[in-house]
Amino acid sequence: MKFQIELSPLLYSPLSGTSYKLSQLLLANMNNQQNWATPAPNQPRRLSTGESSNPPTYSRNDSSASSISYAQQPRGGAPAPRSSSLTPARNSNSGNEGIIVANRAGDEETEDGRIRNREAATKIRDAWIYKQIRARQDEFTQYKQGRVFIGTWNVNAKGKDESLSSWLCADWAQHGPPDVVVVGFQEMVDLNAVNVAVENKSQQRSQFWVEKIKSTLNSRENTMGDPMRSYTELSVKYLVGLLVCVFVKAPHKPRVKHVSTASVGVGVMGVMGNKGGASIRLQFYDSTLCFVCTHLAAHRENVAGRNADFANVFNKTSFEIGDEAVKEVIKLGSLNQWAAGTNSVGVSDHDVVFWFGDLNYRVDESIPTERVLELSEKNLLEELIENDQLNIERANGRVFQDFEEGPLTFKPTYKYQPGTDLYEQRPDKKLRAPAWCDRILWLAQEPGHVAQLNYLRSELNVSDHKPVMSTFLVTIKDVILSRREEVYKEVMKLLNEFENASLPMVSLDRINLDFGKVRYDQRVTLPITITNTGQVVAQFRMVPKLDENTLCRPWMTVTPTYGMLIPGESTEIEFTIGIDNTTSHLLNTSKEVLEDVIILRLENGRDYYISVSGSYARSCFGMSVDELVLYSDPIREVPLDPILRAEKYDFNAKAAMCVPKELWRIIDAIYERGVAERDLFSVPGSPDEVYQIRECLDTGASFENFSVPSMAEVLILFLSNLSTPIVPAAVFPTLDIDAQNIQSFARKFLEDMPPIQYNVFIYIVSFFREVLLHRERNKLSPAKIARICCSCLVSSSQGSPDESAGSVHQRKGNMQQLMLHFLETNSI
């Protein structure tokens, strides 16, 4: 049967602030045959903190226009900070290598030596087309207003004959039947080991709830016998106790496609389905919607666990929708991760995301359980809302970044005595603090495209949770295909004119990058300007060298690693060198040099070889004390080349010094200038002075009148960044230290230390003992200096990788006791 949908012109509203007559709005609201919710006269907006979740009220300020106003509410959930990007990045390459668009296995070399990778070319080309189409989407898109109902309920493995109308249909009289109904359940089965392992009851219970929802939505009272008012089941997805199902009004069914489901278990062992998420995504008209139903980690104190569960579900949820669906979404200008180049999409790749379920966030433990019960029973919610864990975590940007939630105006939905409206307080049951465990949030690429009409709870009482529901007014895109094809043809015509003219050609303003002297802990960037000098589009990308998997050496970063230029267009590629501890150690031991060749490939064209070179301005930072004591010359004058070093220095002779001269210089300067300085080692130094002091140590130049805090900071940085720590792991005490055995432990500790490390350790401890003589003025204590010594003399990474947390804690405690002993004893 082919559906013929009659859509009134009133229901189409391009985003131009068009106003409508109040009489038309009222008539549309009363018309039982309408299929769409009445559009707001202006773009719908999100409820912000302090606004009510009550439905909009229409005012007669103008006979030709209507406006929507929202009643003010003095309290509400804390908003999440909004960042520049829509969502956390999915599947991003966080390393220095950048994004490799396509593997070299797909490279094709022609007889004349040109190389082309069709996969890379297609991805880069589609990305450019997407950008052009998205920039012009208003030329071929009309906008509708549709109502979406979201309901969530933790049923605690209960439910039989109770009616769901008071939950699913509660606001139909006020807002009209929704166009899309989405319902999520948690704990539809007992979360015991058998059910989690084999899901033997999940299918049966999911079918039970789906049929109950169907019968409720399509009751005679709701449909009045009209099949066009009925709802059609679109999709169902379950995971052990989780269930999410989507229903759509019958007239809209032909405009739904690319429906896909996914589930992610994050429970037992991080993979089982007792906790996790079940999701459904679809294209509704020409907007992409995603619905995620989750059950997160329990227990009041386990906030970090809930945050981690959210991140896991968000990042691991993936919908395989196929190449054709992705291509269509590119034409629609809807795909967020358009450069991913795969046939799958994630949560963030949708116009609107609704996230709901038993999120399990509680009221902060700082409020006693009895106090939470008292305030909940009296419906005094302000203090509870301020201490709601989800509000706190969102406000601090730790979870649900960029998601929105309406104000909480209803009492906490958990934990009730099943079968009653009383919070659970029976003597034989564990007393739990009421909480808003059950929540509904949303995320929109265009914030103005979602307005929350209400945010309520139902009073069904068979479970220990109350159901929660919310109705949204969502702006839905409806593409006019003829106009879209015109725009698409114009874009493709422009592209084809250039692609078909000739082969691509680019020019680089240079291909040799000499970074000169690069210093420790310094980042130096040099740009190359690439210009399309040909008559066609030029696609470029960095590719790994043969038999390598990365684009460049670890100390180099390149941004961007790919791009496309139309004729005459230019862009800059930035090459950055950064020397960290690891690289410094490799350079000092001649296992690395600052030289590399980076390949820039022009698709369907030639390769360009960019030569990168630099010289390391050697620094005492990142070296070992065993090597530093060998040289009396400034370390900058010591050759990196091992042959030149051997010619200049006699390594068979004894060490030139007992302790590194750099250590002696900085300690001597602090001793002379400010050992009694107030807040010594507590106040940070000046970054510019820290850099200059480091240069003086490396070059042998005299210290200028630098501040004592800057000197102290350089001392800590020097000790912390040695390639090997002063205190080797081999001398760590393995048994508990007490007053009876600390003297023997201290003696054994010193006896086991290598000679150079022994000298340095004694020297540093002696210095700090001198510092403590001025404790009245510098405000330092032995305990604080002991902590400083542990942080800079003992590497936090030492120890076995599988060492238990208790063992690590014991080791740190033992070391701090030893340090304190050395600082306070009469003799070392």
UniProtKB/TrEMBL annotation:
It comes from the Eukaryota. The keyword Metal-binding does not apply. Pfam families: Exo_endo_phos2, OCRL-like_ASH, RhoGAP. GO terms for cellular component: early endosome membrane; phagocytic vesicle membrane. InterPro entries: Endo/exonu/phosph_ase_sf, Ig-like_fold, IP5, IPPc, OCRL-1_2_ASH, Rho_GTPase_activation_prot, RhoGAP_dom. SUPFAM superfamilies: DNase I-like (SSF56219), GTPase activation domain, GAP (SSF48350). Residues 45-72, 82-96 have a biased composition (Polar residues). Its main location: membrane. Residues 638-828 form the Rho-GAP domain. Keywords: Cytoplasmic vesicle, Endosome. Residues 36-113 are annotated as: Disordered. It is found in: Cytoplasmic vesicle, Phagosome membrane; Early endosome membrane. This is Rho-GAP domain-containing protein.
